[in-house]
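Hi F.,

I've been meaning to write this up properly since the lab meeting, where we talked about keeping a consistent format for the predictions we share between groups. The idea is simple: the sequence comes first, exactly as it goes in, then the structure tokens exactly as they come out, then a line or two of notes. No screenshots and no reformatting. I'm using this chain as the first example so we have something concrete to point to.
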Amino acid sequence: MIARIIEFCCRNRFLTLILTSFVVAGGIWTVFNIRLDAIPDLSDVQVIVFTEYPGQAPQVVEDQVTYPLTTAMLAVPYAKVVRGYSMFGYSFVYIIFEDGTDIYWARSRVLEYLNYVTGRIPKGVTPQLGPDATGVGWVYEYSLRNGYYCPKHPDGMYQDPEQPGQWYATREDAPEEIRDQLERVRMFEHGGKCPWDNETELVLAEYDLSELRTLQDWYMRYELTALEGVSEVAAVGGFVRQYQVVVDPDRLLAYNIPLNQVKMAIQRSNNDVGGRVLEMSETEYMVRGRGYIASLTPDQVKEARSAGIPIDRVRAQQGIHDLERVVIRATETGTPVYLRDIAEVRLGPEMRRGLAESAGEGEVVGGIVVMRFGENALQVIRNVRHKIDELKQGLPAGVDVVAEYDRSALIERAVETLTHTLIKEMVVVGLVCILFLLHARSELVAIFVLPTGVLCALIIMHWMGINANIMSLGGIAISIGVMVDSSIVMVENSHKHLDREEDRIKEELAAGHTPVHRPRAELIIEAAKEVGPTLFFSLLIITVSFLPIFVLGEQSGRLFKPLAYTKTFAMAAASVLAITIIPVLMLSLITSRVLPKEWGWRRNLSITIGVMFLPAAIIWAAPLGAYEQHRHWIMLAWVVLAGMLLVPQKIFHERVNPISKVLQWIYNPFFRFAMAFRKRLVLAAILFAFSGLFPLVGTKNVPFVGAALSRSFPALDTAFPGLGREFMPPLDEGDLLYMPTTDPAISVTKARELLQQTDAIIASFPEVHHVFGKIGRAETATDPAPLSMVETTIMLEPDREKWRKRRFDRWFSFLPSWVIDWSGLSTFWPEERPITIDELCYGYGEGDNHVPGLNEAVAFPGVTNAWTMPIKTRIDMLSTGIKTPVGIKIMGDDLDVLSDLAERISAEVRTLPNTLSAYPEKTVGGLYVDFNIDRDEVARYGLTVADVQDVILSAMGGMNVSWTVEGLERYPINLRYKRELRDNLPALRRTLVATPGGAQVPIAQLADVEIVPGPPMIKSENARKTAWIYVDLTTTDIVGWIERAKALVRDTVPLPAGYNIVWSGQYEYIQAANRRLAIAVPAAAGAIIFLLYLGTRSWFRTVLTMVTFTYTLAGAFWFLYFLDYDMSLAVVVGLIALAGLDAETNLVMLLYLDNVYDTAKAKGRMRHFQDLWDAIYEGAVMRIRPKTMTVATTFMGLVPLMWAEGTGADTMRRLAAPMIGGLATSFFGELVIFPAIYFIYKRFSDLRREGKDYWPTESGSESNHANGTATATPAS
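Output, unedited:
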């Protein structure tokens, strides 16, 4: 069938070219429209149920809200984990669903189950769903700040970033050629003179944090939320304006007014109503009764605007005035008692549980843009930035929006890293092809499959909704060399057929015969059909080898499935292109000239020059927009491409090709040696394959000999401890996240002080570009952070050359400095490098001195530091709840027992080697003021428990009793006692409770008041309370550390009945991946064996291919050992890719050996050992060029991945490393071991099949060839 497809495409060239052009056009469109992100969204499908329960302690929230919700959510279909957080005033319930669950189906089911639980939670408490976002949804963070501005230019001025001292009042004042690069400056951090005229004094914009928060909540937030792809815009920091009614209990007593009456009076004095319509004079009038507090008349608005007073400030004063005139009741004499008679009305801040700070310079108001699930992150960020630029026009003078965290920089760095690597790979592959074939147009045919195959893969990615990120592009990157193999073999085989036809014609002419010339098209089609089926099967095997990746689940599946998909797409595209368009291009381009010779050299030269340089001139003159900086490269690419297509080029015979001659000269002695000592060589290969166990599992774990060797040679244990095990290599996001653990009972004031101090210290490091700190939670359900949780986002300097340098010795460092400078050795092997992120965090040695890092600089008493990455941390915390690589969860019922177990376990694991820190999150550490109500005393006064609790709730804690409506803005009205009556126990005990008889009773007579310890926050998992231990390691061998820690904890910390330990963090991902791979890898191996047999119809070839893979694996393991890489999922994926690659190269080698053997046998030239030897010689030595080309292109396509730098480079290196190491040993094995095994097999199989007479004598020719005394003559 494959042969028929090839012939059909060659007979219908125009149709094939048209269809290919449509595919290319679609691919180019996709390049500009595909979704971009830094990494795949690794978050679980999750639904957040968020409940506000203002003023309630964590234990109350847990008992009345979180526990009923978590128990109900356990029954939701496909929910695998239900995690609850109860903190002061808030409840968070995270429902984590099985992979593949549609997020909107999950949200609808959660809503359905919320209806069942509504009756089990307190009245007035309304659970609501969080945003339809994931753990990677925080894509953009900004802050609102005020500073100095020029009164002559309140809307800002323009600065040329390339000339910092050059300022323009308007964009039009600048020269036209630089207008697009101007930056608008609305605010100056320091006072002084206006930089435009150096005369006008800068003025400070006097906006406090409350007014900035108002701008964020009622101006910025909704405009940004309306953007496509934005799920939520959360505010953090600043103060929410609150009308505070501070009641004097003595006046309440004097007027005999209960607190509840004050509450009712405020609520009934703040409303607008409608009175339907009236018809007067044939006109309809809508009736309304205006009673909103803080509402302004049109005249008041007009006066404020004419006076230049902000409307917000006028409304605030009007609100205070209206509240003061609220009537509570009238006295016996008819005198009204106003609210101002019993309380002070003032503006103040609402209680807050989070704040933001920037670079240690003070508090700011922040905004967090949360992206909707499945959206294009880069496009969302671009839309947000564009909208913010528009919104800046409406901000007051001196107020500006500053970007604090922008993920687009990470996305662009990640995509740029892979894009540059892809381009390098294509260039290297192209150079290899042209070097071997010495024919530029043949090289174009061979590498045509690369850009076209990549475009096909991008089309399918876009259609399936797969983002372009470091993993999906990485799948294409590791496929580049393999994609071109099929076209290389086809092109090279067509060259071989043309060479053979040339030799045949010369032989017939020399013999005096008149040769019959076969059409070139027929020869090329025959060459394509000869190798096409085998190549198609080999590419199919590579595709099947990736089946284990598709069965991975959870985070490992979400991480590597995009890579597996794109590699599969790329390989499928390459295989289809190899049997469709490549044969068509071979017919058109594998020729000495494209332009007909009959046209004459002048005409052909004119056409060639015109096609090369006229479009280049157009490119030179045409505006290229975003590609302006690449103008010269585009011109050069066109000139080179046109020249390669049109300039006449001779097709060189392989025997005069210098590369082929050199390769045969090098390979010949190795081949002869292998054939002479074939049995010993096979034994050596078996031993080498066995040796791969030493770097993989360690000396003592090697079967049969490991224990004995370990006892006899203890140094071997140290030399070969085995590869460590980790889930994934660290992803360099280019930014850091500082997440220390502080005292759970920390106050807002102390938290602000700590945050500002740590931010200032971190910002002082030269490697730090910017710092944005947050403590507590933002106003979003995606942030269940207690007030004790610090999250400081550290934007690092993107230019690593600006980082401090660390010197280290090279092999030549002992030489005098003048020798090093003169020789230029340090140019190729620099003796210094920028410090790494780990060294920035934890310090490094410089000679005998230790240079402290961030961790030592912010080592505050009572603070346990943790350093991680922003995206990784949010994913981990929402998936497992753990922010460090390893977490230990202790499950049980009693928080005191859990706290004790956590302390004991953390103390034990700290003693293990490679433990950087192990600290338990305190489950008991908060402080409670408990009012233990005496039911008998309450009954004696005719009260109920609820009556006393209402006083505690409203008077002490403060209660929002209503909301003002001020245009678009809404602000709470809070009722409370004076602060001095709430800030100590004696004052609390004097709080008055009104009885039904009108008496006022101190609460101390109704309840015992005491301070007791309690939980600052309660965490639960599947309705069981948990205590967490965060563990940071200095090793990447997570599995090995956990195995040792498990044994230690099991022996030293006995668990009470009803308690258990769950080892969490990356360990969970590793275990889940291992369970699936244990089933998937054998299944994939079986599928590969089946396809090998289907393609070769020989169990010998199938077994040979699979057995030699063990030799290939050994090379991969040794290479990993020398690079000091741990066994991670990225390495496993590289090994899986290596399996398919090895099968492909083995099949190509077997194809050449079988073709020559079958040809010789068909011609009756397989009668003795010499014939077999000659056949293998031709199939191996004389066909060294295509084998070397395929391996060289694959190898050179992978090498740029090892040199890659930047975001995602660590992952790509671990993908490529096993493939490079295995490919090197595989290539050596195919050239040296394969022929020996093939000879042994064919000799004995033919002897057994044909009988002893088939090999009449073992002539001396074989030994002569083996010793190099005879020259093999290849069969024609």
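Notes:
The chain is about 50% helix and 15% strand.
Residues 697-722 form one domain.

If this format works for you, I'll send the rest the same way.

G.
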